[in-house]
Amino acid sequence: DIIETNTFNSQSISLADYGMEALAYELAKAGAECARRAADAVEKAQPGRICFVAGAIGPTTKTSSISTDVNNPGARGCTFDELVTSYSEQINGMLDGGVDVLLVETIFDTLNAKAAFFAIQKIFEERNVLPASCWQNRTAGETPAARSIPILASVTFIQAGSNRGVTGQTVEAFWNSISNVPLLSVGMNCALGPKELRPLIEELSGLAPIYLSAYPNAGLPNPLLPTGFPETPESLAPQLREWAQNGWLNIVGGCCGTTPPHIKAIADAVKGLPPRKVPTVEPYLRLSGLDALTVRPNSNFLNIGERTNVAGSPKFAQLIKAGEYEAAVSVARQQVENGAQVIDVCMDEGMIDGVPAMTRFLNLIASEPDICKVPVMVDSSKWEVIEAGLKCLQGKGIVNSISLKEGEEKFLHQAKLVLRYGAAVVVMAFDERGQADSFEPRTEVCKRAYDLLVEKVGFPPQDIIFDPNVLTVGTGMEEHANYAVDFIRATRWIKENLPHAKVSGGISNVSFSFRGNNAVREAMHSAFLYHAIKAGLDM
Question: Hey, CA dihedral for 13, 31, 131, 197, is it positive or negative?
């Protein structure tokens, strides 16, 4: 039913190993045309049968989230931008060659995959192609650009008995990382045989509210066997039939070591079995680093560590300015050890060049499993710094922040990119008139932003986090006296009127008038948090 193109490495990054990078587009297009001819010939010979051509997009021979230099944990084999450029060339070639489907497969580095999905969505926008949420009826000779193109994803796990991939992500963390993509299906392929893949497929089947695919190897590679793989058609097919009977599969096939007899045996084994029913998943805020973090209604208050924010820690700021990044990493480690479930990274300081500083620091902590297991909040008032940070995250993080301060057009543009990069977003209660500082403006701005994000961008409401501005009380100015109470009232209103949205606040602001007097500040924070959390403050 689906035949893949032989274009797995038809991208300039992989072909550069052979000095053939200039042939990337040509090879991708030729590979698609070859498969298209084969599929069309089958359709002609068997009237009524439809054969779909899937454009195979491999992970490249580089990694963007793991260090390639034992002496430099921040080194990378390629950047996100280089991947997007390389993948774009390949994708354009395959679309021009006539593929029906784009398949990002054998994903071992989620950041590489995010670059591929970013490139696909950018090209779809340029070519006026829609990602399909279901199979489209296709007639012979129809132009690919005139219809929707489904996007499929397939991850590979290489270690038997572990639910962590090459870069250390769990199955759930991987799914959270790519859940922003308008995928038709997600699944697993390669590396492992059916015995080793079984528990991973079962887990993914319960997580993903889309179709599920599986095309394992014919067992673990064994060079001592004549075929190189232990599973025969007769031993492989019954195992995949069991998966289908368990309700785990929508699409099934074979990867390395499988032959035409294997595929025929699989097809015969699952014929007539009902496909998996797509599960309904609760609309919770789901984040990830190497591990998944799900914010449920009964979850404890979420603590975001701000010591890796140059405004939140003088020590951290000094280390970054001095270029002592390895020492700065220890601040992040301390935050996680002390209970931070998310770490906020901000480099907004006049003496710091934000883009390279953000990139270098995030690359360094990505090499520290005890730190990068938690999600990252990329924090900046400069969009180029936020974007640089998002290009380093293989997990699903949070952007802090965007607002309506510079109008709707810029707000919508940034929100669309945040969604494409695969992050949740903090929205400040700020519009063209300035910072909302009382109950009515706070709720008006949040309602306007929510409607724009959900209706115009398609942003998942559970991934929207409002910051209704914790402002300073006790200044002696009468107009400031109600700031804290109005924040609490606005929090309650958001939770009651903007479904699934979350609320965050920078708590220390409320007591800023009493800086230097920690006993008073701590008492104020405790009282403020007590009432704000009861009203619905999430983090």
Answer: negative
